[in-house]
Amino acid sequence: MIELLTDLFSNFWVSLAGKLALVALMIPLIGMALGFAEIKLSAKMQARVGPYFAGGRWGWAQLIADGIKFFQKEDIIPTAADRPVFKAAPMLVLVSTVALLVVIPFGPGLIFRDLSVGVFYALAVSSLSTIGILMAGWSSGNKYSLIGGLRAAGQLIAYELPLVLAVVGAVIMAGTMSMSGIVEAQIAAGFPYVIVQFVGFGIFLVAALAELTRIPFDMPIAESELVMGYLTEYSGFRFLFFFLAEFANMFTLSAIAATLFLGGYWLPGVPESVLEFAGPAILLGKVFLLAFVMIWFRWTFPRFREDQLQTLAWKWLVPLALANIAVTAVLKVVL
Amino acid sequence: MAMRVKPPPGLGLIKGLGVTLSTMLKTIFLPHKYLATVNYPKVKEVPVPRARGVIALDQEACTVCMLCARQCPDWCIYIEGHKEEIPPDEPGGRVKVRAKLDRFDIDYALCMYCGICVEVCPFDALFWSPAYEYSETHMGDMLHDMDRLQDWLEVVPGRESIEQGTYQG
């Protein structure tokens, strides 16, 4: 039986179909899990109950009901919209999220594709969503969407830089750009890199929040001034795409942060044989911890002003990240 | 003059995180004490006695003076009445006239709960009640006739509980 399965999965197309099905299942499930965590935790932070009735207990089916609601809604495309671009934008945003999953190691050898330039690939693909957002803002034929899209472009370009520079420290320490290679280097070193790369980790977390355009960096959406930014004209299923992409992106960026700085699927003191099975659970635990921090920030902090946003990126995060790289490189050579 | 010590930058951010975290933990572990909301249809909220829920009518006290209908900013009160002649007590005496209420409707689909009608009523025929569960699936059913308004009189809180004001415990 097992021989038959391995035989079947050694076929390229079968294994590809299997991986695709896994990703197609993972993205909505993870998106819903994080979305549910967000609505439930935000309720608790505001001394509310949160969703309670959907599904009978704890409102666990709330987001499934929401998803079905989005399916039923009319798909409205404004007359002034650039139709093909308008339709392609949400797909591009979701594709960048899905493509990020490729290089995340869930356990020893448990990775969709172990690229030798994994970190480079991850950062390049994550900035694809910027194009999607800019396309959405431009094609909607709406001034709020356009302002939101341009703000998103300005913000994402500004924060892409510290995001990349923050990672370089970890790459220098590991001496490899392969994601699973970095985890193995952390296992060999015996400590997660956050202990020495705490500056890089902090910068990465702040820049990741800005990449996700989450509060306190939600200037591109800014309900109170831009209606809903680049999302203004989207409805129904296309809106659901953006919604899913936001939460799935939260997962993938948290997973990258966990892999690069928190030891990924590895916990100190856990033997190699256990990691084979416990790896994904350990990684998920770290991801949910980081996701909790993001949700916590969102429901605590007010929104940045546009100039404060740019000041933080260019005057603080970029120089700090450069200094971090210099110090790391010098210590790597000296020690 | 006392010197104001400038707090270190970023202290406010950490304080804010502390507030949300402690609220979350309190709400999760001690919901009965800290929860600000109730699970409404299962658990009914008890409004304060002075809450403006619904207006009750005492038909006996009403004299069809129309002051409430004329003062109503939304014109949501409909009053009709007629005069009844009461024969004199002894022959040759004066015929008394008494106003009789035929119709007194309040359209709660229009009402904005300003309470001017209750304020203006010179005969204390209108009262506020904190009852709030009278939503309808049909808009027309929001028009309460005078019998229904009379029924609301049962849920008008007594003088003592109103005197307590808005503070409960």
Give a verbal description of the structure:
The complex is a heterodimer of chains A (335) and B (169). Chain A is mainly alpha-helical. Chain A has one domain. Chain A has helices spanning 2-10, 12-45, 62-72, 83-100, 118-126, 128-139, 143-174, 179-189, 198-211, 223-226, 236-261, 272-298, 306-334. In chain A, helix 9 packs antiparallel against helix 13 (306-334) and helix 11 crosses helix 12 (272-298). Chain A is globular. The mean pLDDT of chain A is 84. Chain B has 169 residues and is an alpha+beta fold. Chain B has 2 domains: 16-45, no CATH class; 54-163, 2-Layer Sandwich (Alpha-Beta Plaits), CATH 3.30.70.3270. In chain B, strands 2-3-5 form a 3-stranded antiparallel sheet. A two-stranded antiparallel ribbon of chain B has the order 1-4. The model of chain B has no long low-confidence stretch (mean pLDDT 86).
List how many beta strands of chain B DSSP finds: 5
Please provide the count of β strands of chain A. Answer: 0
Based on secondary structure, the structural category of chain B is alpha+beta
- What is the annotated CATH architecture of the largest domain in chain B? 2-Layer Sandwich
Major sheet details of chain A: none
Q: Nearest-angstrom radius of gyration of chain A? A: 21 Å
Uncertain parts of chain A: none
Biggest beta sheet attributes of chain B: 3 strands, antiparallel
Strand order of the largest sheet of chain B: 2-3-5
Structural class of chain A: mainly alpha
Radius of gyration of chain B: 26 Å
Summary keywords:
heterodimer; A: 335 residues; 13 helices; 70% helix; B: 169 residues; alpha+beta; Alpha-Beta Plaits; 3-stranded antiparallel sheet; two-stranded antiparallel ribbon; 6 helices; 19% strand
